[in-house]
Amino acid sequence: MSIQKAAFIYLVVINIAAYAAFGWDKYKARWGGWRIPEKTLLMLALIGGSAGAWIGMKRFRHKIRKARFKVGILVILTVQCAGIVSVLKML
User: Fold this and answer.
1) 66, 70, 67, 65: which is closest to 54 by C-alpha?
2) pLDDT at 4 (0 to 100)
3) What is the biggest distance separating any 2 CA atoms in the chain, rounded to whole angstroms?
4) Residue 43 and residue 39: Cα distance in Å, rounded?
5) Cα–Cα distance, 9 to 28 (Å, whole number)
6) Distance (Å, whole) CA 17 – CA 49
7) Cα-Cα-Cα-Cα dihedral of 78, 79, 83, 86, to 10°?
8) % of the chain at pLDDT higher than 70
9) Contact at 8 Å (CB) between 15 and 48?
10) Burial 11-50 (b: 16+ CB within 10 A, else e)
11) Gap between the Cα atoms of 70 and 51, Å rounded
12) How many whole angstroms separate alpha carbon 53 and alpha carbon 1?
């Protein structure tokens, strides 16, 4: 398997995980129970799941009032997109 294919698969999986984590945490916020720590949600975005986290925030209307998430995930997403564009230009 090529490095590009492995990176693509990783990004798909981590973004699905981030999206699902925001959905699950919103569900637990509404109905009670164990919540996903904020650090974990931010870490999922930081390790490559920023697009999934951003879409999850918007779709589930979760953590949208917290500036730490609103700005933080958007900054992470912007930096990651810029990094991807830079890498693609080098190829």
Assistant:
1) 70
2) 84
3) 48
4) 6
5) 28
6) 7
7) 70
8) 100
9) yes
10) beebbebbbebbebbbeeeeeeeeeeeeeebbebbbebbb
11) 13
12) 27
d(CA 53, CA 77): 9
For residue 91, count other CB atoms closer than 10 A to its CB: 5
Sequence length of the chain is 91
Q: Two tokens at 43?
A: 């870490």
Cβ–Cβ < 8 Å for 55, 43:
no
Which of the four pLDDT bands, split at 50, 70 and 90, describes residue 53?
very high
Q: Which residue reads 């890498």 in tokens?
A: 87
Indicate the range of 34-38, 76-80, 87-91 predicted with least confidence: 87-91
Distance of CA 83 to the CA centre of its chain: 16
DSSP 51-64: HHHHHHHHHHT-ST
